[in-house]
Write a structure and sequence with these properties.
Elements lengths: L1 E4 L5 H15 L6 H10 L2 H7 L4 E8 L2 E9 L3 E7 L8 H12 L4 E6 L4 H7 L2 E2 L4 E3 L2 E9 L4
Parallel strand pairs: 4-5
Antiparallel strand pairs: 1-2, 2-3, 3-4, 5-8, 6-8, 7-8
């Protein structure tokens, strides 16, 4: 298992990883609008539009295939963190979070966690940072991690 930067040729596989995980764990609790919004965010076009120096996008590979995807926007906000359902609970999410934290710029990293992922983010060191919110059909729990300077 290795983490590395997302490459243009990874985008279709990265999109498929996000959709597989989302459809299995998050989509059943959302409205059709939320599913539509998310589908656009993690489409190949969505990933391509966010590939920039401001965003850090990483993948985790195992046996030559992408099994996890994560994105840090502006060095401060976790925008995506998804692992294939059959690869979860194997340390891939933790490895991806660490890769993002290594790219962090600032004292706090935030995330809008899906409600079902709150406990995972708590295990990674994030804490609830406000009331549950909703945007374009996506229901989320704001969370944050205060980084300790090294």
């Amino acid at each position: 298992m290795t983490t590395r930067r997302l490459r243009a040729e990874d985008m279709a596989e990265a999109s498929a990883v996000c959709m597989a995980s989302f459809m299995a764990s998050v989509a059943p609790s959302l409205s059709p609008l939320g599913v539509e919004t998310f589908t656009g965010i993690v489409s190949v076009e969505g990933f391509a539009s966010r590939m920039s120096d401001e965003n850090d996008m990483v993948v985790c590979e195992s046996n030559g295939r992408v099994v996890g995807v994560a994105e840090l926007v502006g060095g401060q906000h976790v925008a995506t963190l998804f692992v294939l359902p059959d690869c979860q609970r194997q340390g891939i999410g933790r490895a991806l979070v660490q890769a993002l934290l290594d790219c962090a710029r600032g004292d706090i990293v935030t995330v809008r966690a899906s409600l079902g992922s709150v406990s995972a983010y708590e295990r990674y060191g994030f804490r609830v940072a406000g009331p549950v919110g909703e945007y374009a059909g996506l229901v989320y729990q704001p969370m944050e991690m205060v980084l300790i300077p090294s």
